[in-house]
Amino acid sequence: MQIAVPKEIKNHEYRVALTPTGARELVARDHRVTVQAGAGEGAGFPDAAYEAAGACLETDVAKVWDGAELILKVKEPQAEEVARLKAGQTLFTYLHLAAEEKLTRGLMESGATCIAYETITDRQGGLPLLAPMSTVAGRMAIQAGAHSLEKAQGGSGVLLPGVPGVAPARVAVIGGGVVGENAARMALGLGAEVTVLDKSIPRLETLDDRYQGRMKTVFSTADTIDEAVHECDLIVGAVLIPGAAAPKLITREMLAEMQPGSVLVDVAIDQGGCFETSRATTHTDPTYIVDGIVHYCVANMPGAVARTSTQALTNATLPFVIALADKGWQQALADDAHFAAGLNVHDGQVTYKAVAEALGLQYVDPGELLK
Ligand SMILES: NC(=O)C1=CN([C@@H]2O[C@H](COP(=O)(O)OP(=O)(O)OC[C@H]3O[C@@H](n4cnc5c(N)ncnc54)[C@H](O)[C@@H]3O)[C@@H](O)[C@H]2O)C=CC1
Ligand SMILES: CC(=O)C(=O)O
Ligand SMILES: [Mg+2]
């Protein structure tokens, strides 16, 4: 199969969808891998490493896209990439379509088959291709939040661990899944006072058990979120309803209840964000202030630590990429219902229910396609 790996073009996105190690595995299976020149540089993988792995390098981006049957990316295609995509091609990447009507319609118009990393499931009920980046983003959320609390960033001037004689900062994490647990763990490590709110009792039980009372676990309701808003210096938004737009849990009105200079880090921004006042930002200009509250809402946080993230991402995606390349998308998805959950758009139709519902588009059950 002809497999293409374009260079990512989203703002400060330095990850690449395939490492040289991954390229070697595909070439060994007789697939042809074309990597756009410079695609791996930001993650520390020079062109020569891909060449040594048996991949072809291409400087002309049009040729990279044009000749491909399978396109591997990291971030959702940007407008100029959507324009390059065509019927008969398979795109495998993060898509996060529920909050992106224009992108969804663009992918439908392309006629391509679009499989999203973030909706693929596993036997344990997890999201195995989201989890590695959620781990990274969760850990980064506290670094970003701590920096945003500094006065020069518009923050309140609170140091997360405090110092002897001065109390530590209070951190709330809404959503105690992969992002949430990793954020909470980092905040604990820095000596903050940490509360995790979740709607899932089993999840709260797991956290309680794992952290042995070192963090508070609280059932998430309008009341308990209100309490967190009153008390906390830093709130991390880490909720997810798979494939769907994130629920808005903190309204603009509620910002007035926070201490001025407090910080909201909305990791769930790639699903539309879980705070009413969130809007996606970039690594170039990651924060903005609404009613005295600093907002950090970068939709591709792991892109900033591209070396770690690329390795973690491709460790997880490679078995799926090999299945797509060896069998073609139809057979690969027919053989694995968890993989099939990744199919979001095919041949002009939305094949993922939560996306169709969020955008008011017609849902087409992919079952028939996979028989
Ligand atoms: N901005 C970025 O760069 C990145 C963003 N993400 C995003 O972070 C979000 C979280 O991802 P994961 O932790 O992997 O998901 P997850 O599925 O592991 O965890 C989500 C948690 O939210 C909980 N939840 C749902 N509704 C809730 C509510 N109303 N109140 C409290 N908790 C609620 C669920 O019970 C679950 O435990 C997703 O939107 C994901 O796409 C992930 C990686 C990078
Ligand atoms: C999950 C995601 O969108 C990212 O890693 O950029
Ligand atoms: Mg996005």
TrEMBL record:
Q: Where is the active site?
A: 96, 270
Chain residues that bind substrate: 15, 75
The organism that produces this protein has a lineage beginning with: Bacteria, Pseudomonadati, Pseudomonadota, Gammaproteobacteria, Oceanospirillales
- Record's superkingdom? Bacteria
Q: What is its EC number?
A: 1.4.1.1
Q: What is this protein called?
A: Alanine dehydrogenase
The record's section on PANTHER family has: ALANINE DEHYDROGENASE
Leader sequence residues: none
Q: Which SUPFAM superfamilies match?
A: Formate/glycerate dehydrogenase catalytic domain-like, NAD(P)-binding Rossmann-fold domains
| Catalysed reaction equations from the record | L-alanine + NAD(+) + H2O = pyruvate + NH4(+) + NADH + H(+)
Key word Oxidoreductase present in the record? yes
- List the InterPro entries: Ala_DH, Ala_DH/PNT_CS2, AlaDH/PNT_N, AlaDH/PNT_NAD(H)-bd, NAD(P)-bd_dom_sf
Q: Which SMART domains match?
A: AlaDh_PNT_C (SM01002), AlaDh_PNT_N (SM01003)
Q: Which GO terms describe its cellular component?
A: plasma membrane
GO molecular function annotations of the record = alanine dehydrogenase activity; nucleotide binding
Record organism? Halomonas daqiaonensis
Look up the record and give one Gene Ontology term from the biological process aspect.
L-alanine catabolic process
Where on this chain does NAD(+) bind?
134, 198, 203, 220, 239-240, 267-270, 279, 298-301
Pfam families per record: AlaDh_PNT_C, AlaDh_PNT_N
Domain (Alanine dehydrogenase/pyridine nucleotide transhydrogenase NAD(H)-binding): give its ranges.
149-297
| Catalytic EC class | oxidoreductase
